[in-house]
Write a structure and sequence with these properties.
Radius of gyration: 20 Å
Largest sheet: 6 strands, antiparallel
Number of helices: 1
Shape: globular
Oligomer: single chain
Number of strands: 11
Order of helices and strands: HEEEEEEEEEEE
Helix content: under 10%
């Protein structure tokens, strides 16, 4: 009889099944820090006890976070999904978001600017209607890298038409996983 190779016997589906899983890393609002002094008192609690950052409509507000890229991340460009709402009833309007990312290696100057990507998101009409805004991640990541992210609401931009604070709930980093 013909011999069965070990690879065919133990791994009949090949390697592809191990690098095509989408996973996410959720970074909630409470884990982010203020990077502009105007936001010192803006960390609040929404009516349903979620911790939020209220990002103003008239100026640019920014919050930041550092994290280590997940160990199962396949090198590539993840997708960032921002979750937010406006804490009052209003007609649908747009918010301009900017996501800036930078990988930090030992010895790097942490004040050097990163790479940015922006999006204009339509807000769901109604009181506290959660909106999810997708931003293509501005850089490729590799597992284990130390990453710094900054999210800005560009409230002074002419395309930002929401005349209310945008309450940031968190960011969902969606990536391809290995294993």
């Amino acid at each position: 009889p013909a011999a069965i190779t070990r690879d065919a016997e133990w791994n009949p589906h090949g390697q592809a099944e191990h690098t095509d899983r989408t996973r996410s890393l959720y970074l909630p609002a409470g884990a982010w820090q203020n990077v502009l002094t105007a936001l010192l008192n803006a960390l609040g609690t929404s009516p349903n006890t979620n911790i939020v950052w209220d990002l103003d409509d008239a100026v640019s507000d920014a919050i930041g976070i550092s994290f280590v890229a997940p160990a199962d991340l396949v090198t590539g460009t993840p997708v960032a999904v921002l979750h937010w709402f406006a804490n009052a009833g209003a007609a649908a309007a747009d918010v301009v978001w900017r996501l800036t990312a930078r990988v930090l290696a030992v010895g790097d100057d942490s004040f050097v600017a990163g790479t940015s990507a922006s999006t204009t998101s339509a807000r769901n009409a109604g009181i506290r209607g959660k909106t999810s805004s997708t931003v293509t991640f501005p850089i490729a990541l590799t597992a284990g890298q130390h990453v710094r992210l900054v999210i800005e609401r560009i409230g002074g931009d002419a395309a930002d038409t929401l005349a209310l604070a945008a309450s940031f709930l968190g960011l969902d980093l969606q990536y391809t996983a290995d294993g």
